[in-house]
Amino acid sequence: MAALGWLTPRRRSATARSVLAGEAAAEAARKTSQQLEEVAPPLREPDFPVQGDVHAAAFFDLDNTVMQGAAIFHFGRGLYKRKFFQRRELARFAWQQAWFRLAGVEDPEHMQDARESALSIVKGHRVSELMTIGEEIYDEYMADRIWPGTRALAQAHLDAGQKVWLVTAAPVETATIIARRLGLTGALGTVAESVDGVYTGKLVGEPLHGPAKAEAVRALAAAEGLDLTRCAAYSDSHNDIPMLSLVGHPYAINPDTKLRKHARELEWRLRDYRTGRKAAKVGIPAAAGVGALAGGTAAAVALHRRRR
To answer: Can you give the pTM of this predicted structure?
Structure first.
């Protein structure tokens, strides 16, 4: 009993001392935390885009980055409605558009075929006529296909006082209309030759695709006095890796498989505004996937019948 009497007070005393020690440690931790906050605030990612940085700009690919699908295919659909060409050409445009949306990548052969078709269709027409029609086509087929997420990224650069350019293989006239409708600075696009305001059916140079985009951005940056290490570029396609590699802030938007892999290896930022696992995998906007597939099937049947 004597031994228990000797232990009991000591246990109580130890408990009291533990409580005191715990309270003291908690109070010291609070004071230390406050001191650290005053001396060195917690690290965080710098704000981007940087407000007022006039030596920075943003460059956005168009097809499947800013807009679902390819602009040239939507343009072709609008021209068909206005009887610029026959039903068999429409089937080809529909098939190319469906393939593009299903695959989520830019196939050079399909894109070249689409460009040649468009050039042959507009040959002999006035540039001013196609610009007026392009405005109507934007409202009919393109306005509702702008990715809200990408549009918000572009607006963030504008709000920071920076210029924002579209960089696309689409005709420069179409790209300029889209840029103006979105409130962007301007557009770099493929230039079709015209004489006295009439299209000749030829290109000036080559389509603005792949490495050509990078050269266009480099030239524009030099003319505008931009520091490319402070600029940003956005694209969905591995074909635009040359352009993305030019800037200090590359973004992969709705990326195809090759670009996603490359972006992860280099720790580039990724944004995917498509919904659903299947859409993320193959590049189909979820709400439009069934329609695209059905349209592609119908177009394929039409092509098959024509070839037979």
So the answer is: 0.70
Least confident range of 2-6, 146-150, 188-192: 2-6
More confident call, 80 vs 28: 80
Share of the chain above pLDDT 90, in %: 48
Cα 98 to Cα 56, 72, 292, distances in angstroms: 36, 13, 5
Exactly one of 47, 53, 63, 196 is catalytic; name it. Answer: 63
Token pair, residue 288, equals: 């439009």
Mean pLDDT of 52-65: 95
**Strand, helix or coil at 133?**
helix
Answer yes or no: 61 catalytic. Answer: yes
Q: Which of 86-95, 130-139, 150-159 is the least confident region?
A: 86-95
**DSSP state, residue 194:** E
List pLDDT tens digits, range 170-189: 999 999 999 999 999 999 99
d(CA 67, CA 4): 82
What is the number of alpha carbons within 13 Å of residue 88 lying toward its C-beta?
5
- Cα Rg, the chain, nearest whole Å: 29
Task: Identify the active-site residue in 61, 236, 240, 256.
Answer: 61
C-alpha torsion sign, points 164, 167, 172, 178: negative
Answer yes or no: are the C-beta atoms of 144 and 184 closer than 8 Å.
Answer: no
30's CB contacts (< 8 A; 6+ apart) are: none
Q: Which amino acid is at 12?
A: R
Q: Mark out the alpha helices in the chain (DSSP H runs).
A: 2-39, 71-81, 87-103, 108-122, 127-137, 148-159, 172-181, 211-224, 241-246, 257-266, 277-282, 289-307
